[in-house]
């Protein structure tokens, strides 16, 4: 991929809750020479967003694209170096864009917390993306980034201190507020699939579900998330419970670990 592409970044789903936050951030912090465009199903809604935000956002070109029209996604991917997408539920709307980016050699990032979508994306497009130089990066939101990065940093620090390799790690976090409509729709969609499909349940409850080589991983045994419980953690003297996204975060951390340290390495994280 070269700099000859029209844009550096296209934000797809710019008018959604998280999409608007991304646009605000880019308008405030992106380098002045960054070529940024905003995309969504409705050109009028994207233009209304730009008018509401004002300032630099007004200069971002508008692109109309719809996951129900794959040709619009192909055109979108071919115009930019990077696509940031907030359009979920990803299991319903995400695969055509992943395919378009993998085919075009365009880097891709999303916010998904849907293990079945990520597994399908890997199975169908990992080799294609590698061959075309595209980086497909899922789960770039609060769901997994703290668990994934904190585990990596803890493992690096333990190694640097001569304390050996990290085994299990627990991340404690507190949160307030609610969930966006897209998050709720994604969770509902996956729950509906699990009720219908026993094979899907097996994937979702497998802590190594996203491993690059599942056969090389150890037997994870029964998932700790099958019977979640509230308990007193005496180390921090606080009542804790599994984070609602813990069962997704652990496969993400294990995939990152296997990709960097080998498939039999043991590090994992449980977010609480």
UniProtKB/TrEMBL annotation:
<feature type="domain" description="Saccharopine dehydrogenase NADP binding">
    <location>
        <begin position="9"/>
        <end position="136"/>
    </location>
</feature>
<dbReference type="InterPro" id="IPR036291">
    <property type="entry name" value="NAD(P)-bd_dom_sf"/>
</dbReference>
<dbReference type="InterPro" id="IPR051276">
    <property type="entry name" value="Saccharopine_DH-like_oxidrdct"/>
</dbReference>
<dbReference type="InterPro" id="IPR005097">
    <property type="entry name" value="Sacchrp_dh_NADP-bd"/>
</dbReference>
<dbReference type="Pfam" id="PF03435">
    <property type="entry name" value="Sacchrp_dh_NADP"/>
</dbReference>
<protein>
    <recommendedName>
        <fullName>Saccharopine dehydrogenase NADP binding domain-containing protein</fullName>
    </recommendedName>
</protein>
């Amino acid at each position: 991929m070269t700099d000859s592409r029209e844009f550096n970044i296209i934000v797809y789903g710019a008018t959604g809750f998280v999409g608007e936050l991304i646009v605000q951030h880019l308008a405030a912090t992106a380098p002045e020479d960054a070529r940024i465009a905003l995309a969504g199903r409705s050109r009028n809604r994207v233009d209304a967003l730009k008018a509401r935000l004002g300032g630099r956002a007004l200069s971002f070109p508008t692109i109309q694209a719809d996951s129900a029209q794959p040709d619009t996604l192909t055109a979108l991917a071919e115009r930019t170096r990077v696509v940031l997408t907030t359009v979920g539920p990803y299991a319903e709307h995400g695969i055509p864009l992943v395919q378009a980016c993998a085919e075009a050699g365009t880097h891709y990032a999303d916010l998904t917390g849907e293990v079945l979508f990520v597994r399908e994306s890997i199975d169908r497009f990992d080799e294609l993306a590698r061959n075309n130089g595209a980086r497909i990066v899922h789960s770039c939101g609060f769901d997994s980034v703290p668990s994934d990065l904190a585990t990596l940093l803890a493992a690096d620090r333990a190694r640097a201190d001569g304390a050996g390799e990290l085994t299990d790690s627990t991340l404690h976090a507190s949160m307030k507020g609610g969930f966006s409509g897209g998050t709720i729709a994604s969770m509902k969609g996956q729950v509906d699939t699990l009720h219908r499909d026993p094979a899907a349940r097996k994937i979702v409850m497998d802590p190594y579900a996203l491993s690059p080589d599942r056969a090389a991983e150890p037997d994870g045994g029964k998932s700790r998330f099958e019977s979640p419980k509230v308990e007193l953690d005496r180390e921090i003297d606080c009542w804790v419970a599994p984070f609602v996204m813990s069962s997704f975060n652990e496969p993400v951390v294990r995939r990152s670990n296997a990709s960097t340290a080998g498939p039999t390495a043991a590090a994992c994280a449980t977010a609480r």
